[in-house]
Design a protein that fits this description.
D-Amino Acid Oxidase, Chain A, domain 2, alpha/beta, 2 domains, eight-stranded mixed sheet, single chain, binds flavin-adenine dinucleotide
Length: about 425
C-alpha cells in the first residue's frame, strides 16, 4: 500500500477501514542469507539497504522486544553533520544527504525538519575551536556559518547572551541540521524493508551466536535456532554482550544517557541549540514540548531509566542558558543505554569472525547516522568489505592505533 494525500482522502470517506498493518508479522524461517540482530533504526536501515541496494532480500531482523523501543525511540532526534575530522565529514554528509531524501525514498513521513543546529561558545578558546571546525567543514563542502552574539540573540531571544557567568560570544551554525521524528524513522524503514521481502521478527531475543571453524552459522533465539550465512549486529548498548556470544571482546562500554520533555508550549525555540558551557541541548517538538538533554551518567549500566541528580544537573545548565525555562514544568524523563566507544567514533565493519559484522559504538550521536550506518553496514555485509565511507570505522583500529579522536580529548571514555 502506497501512502499519499489521495489515499488519506479516500480512507477518510470510507471510515478508515482500508488501512493495512505497516509490516507483516511472519514466523521466523529456519534459515536466512542474512540475519540482522537489533530492530532499532540501524538494524532496520541495514535490512532495507541490503534489499534495496544489493538485492539481498532473504533477510530477517530479529528484535527482542517491539522495534524502535531502544535508543531509536529514546533520543532527542538531532540530525547534523558538523564534525571536524574528514573521516567523519564524508560519512555524516552521506547520512545527511540520505535524510534529505528519506521520506520520498521510504514513502513515509519521518518529519525531517532542517531547522538548523547552533553550537554556542562562551570563551575565546572555544570560539577558536568552533572556527577551526567550521573551516574544516567548509573545506569539504559542508555548510557552516559563524554567528556573532547579536545574530544568536536575533535567532533565539530566549538565550541570555549577556549573562554574567557564561556570556555568549557567538555560535557555529549548520543550517542543514535539524531534527526527525525518531519513531517514524524505525517504522518507515521497517515498512519499506518489509515491502521488499525482509522478515521483521519482533519478540525474538538472540541468546547465542553459533560459530564453527571461525565462521558464523546461525543464532540461538527465544523462538528457536535460525541458520544464517551472515550476521550483522546492530544492538547499541548490548553490543559487548552480543559480541561475547561469538567469543569476541569489543572496546565498547554501556552508559545511560537521559533526556527530558517539558509541557507543551507555543513555538519558542526555532532551532536546535547546544550550550557550550555545560552539558545541555534543546529543541522544540512539533507537539510543543521542549526536548532537552545533557551528558552521560558516569558509570556503566544497562538500566534504561533516569535519576534525580541528572534532573538537577540538566535543568540547571538549561536555566543558565535560558532563564525562562525555570517557569516550565517537566513532563517526562527517560534514559537509553549508549554504546560508548573508546575514541568516541563508531565501528562499522567486519569482525575477527567470518560472516559477522557490526554497526556500533555510536555514543551519544547515532540517531543522525541511522541511514548512513544502515547504508554502509549493508554495503559491508553484501561485499564482505567496507565501503570507503566506513573504512576508517573498522574495529581493528583499536589494535593498530588508528583512532578517530573527533573531539581531541584523547581516547578515554570517561572524558566523553
Ligand atoms: C537520551 C538519548 C538522547 C540521544 N540523542 C541523540 C540525538 O539527539 N542525536 C543523535 O544523533 N543521537 C542521539 N542519541 C543516540 C541514538 O539514539 C543512538 O545512537 C541510536 O538511536 C542507536 O540506534 P540503534 O539502532 O543502534 O540502537 P537501538 O535503537 O537501541 O536498537 C538496538 C536494538 O537491539 C535490540 N537488542 C538488544 N539485544 C538484543 C538481543 N539479544 N536480541 C535481539 N534484539 C536485541 C534492542 O531491543 C534494541 O531495540 C541519543 C540517545 C539517547 C539515549
Amino acid at each position: 500500500m502506497r501512502y499519499s494525500g489521495l489515499r488519506l482522502f479516500a480512507e477518510a470517506l470510507r471510515g478508515n477501514t482500508g488501512w493495512k498493518p505497516a509490516w507483516r508479522d511472519p514466523p521466523p524461517k529456519r534459515s536466512y542469507d542474512v540475519i540482522i540482530i537489533g530492530g532499532g533504526g540501524h538494524g532496520l536501515a541495514t535490512a532495507y539497504y541490503l534489499a534495496k541496494e544489493h538485492g539481498i532480500t532473504n533477510v530477517a531482523v530479529l528484535e527482542k522486544g517491539p522495534i524502535g523501543l531502544g535508543n531509536t525511540g529514546r533520543n532527542t532526534t538531532i540530525v547534523r553533520s558538523n564534525y571536524m575530522l574528514p573521516q567523519n565529514h564524508f560519512f555524516y554528509e552521506k547520512a545527511l544527504s540520505l535524510w534529505e531524501g528519506l521520506e520520498q525514498d521510504l514513502n513515509y513521513n519521518a518529519m525531517v525538519s532542517q531547522r538548523g543546529v547552533i553550537n554556542l561558545f562562551h570563551a575565546e578558546g572555544t570560539r577558536n575551536a568552533a572556527v577551526r571546525r567550521g573551516n574544516a567543514m567548509r573545506l569539504d563542502g559542508i555548510d557552516a556559518d559563524l554567528l556573532d552574539k547579536e545574530q544568536v540573540r536575533a535567532l533565539c531571544p530566549l538565550i541570555d547572551v549577556d549573562n554574567g557567568r557564561f556570556p555568549v560570544l557567538g555560535g557555529l551554525m549548520q543550517r542543514r541540521g535539524g531534527t526527525a521524528r525518531h519513531d517514524a524513522v524505525a517504522w518507515g524503514f521497517a515498512r519499506a524493508a518489509d515491502q521488499r521481502g525482509v522478515d521483521i521478527i519482533q519478540h525474538c531475543e538472540v541468546t547465542g551466536i553459533d560459530v564453527e571453524g571461525g565462521r558464523v552459522t546461525g543464532v540461538q533465539t527465544t523462538r528457536g535456532p535460525i541458520k544464517a550465512n551472515k550476521i550483522g549486529l546492530a544492538v547499541a548498548g548490548n553490543t559487548s554482550r552480543l559480541a561475547q556470544m561469538a567469543g569476541i571482546d569489543v572496546p565498547i562500554e554501556s552508559h545511560v544517557l537521559q533526556a527530558f520533555v517539558s509541557e507543551g508550549v507555543k513555538p519558542l525555540v526555532d532551532q536546535v541549540i547546544t550550550f557550550g558551557a555545560g552539558h545541555f541541548y534543546i529543541s522544540q517538538s512539533d507537539k510543543g514540548g521542549l526536548v532537552f538533554g545533557g551528558g552521560l551518567d558516569g558509570w556503566n549500566t544497562y538500566a534504561q531509566r533516569g535519576n534525580l541528580p541528572v534532573v538537577d544537573h540538566v535543568w540547571s545548565a538549561g536555566i543558565a542558558m535560558m532563564p525562562s525555562l525555570s517557569r516550565l514544568r517537566g513532563l517526562r524523563q527517560w534514559g537509553g543505554v549508549m554504546d560508548m566507544s573508546f575514541d568516541g567514533s563508531p565501528i562499522i565493519g567486519k569482525t575477527p569472525i567470518d560472516g559477522l559484522y557490526m554497526t556500533a559504538g555510536w555514543c551519544y550521536g547515532g540517531f543522525k547516522a541511522t541511514p548512513g550506518s544502515g547504508w554502509c553496514h549493508a554495503w559491508t555485509i553484501a561485499n564482505d568489505a567496507p565501503h570507503k565511507l566506513n573504512e576508517a570505522y573498522r574495529l581493528d583500529r583499536f589494535r593498530t592505533g588508528h583512532l578517530l579522536d573527533e573531539r581531541g580529548n584523547g581516547p578515554y571514555p570517561w572524558m566523553q
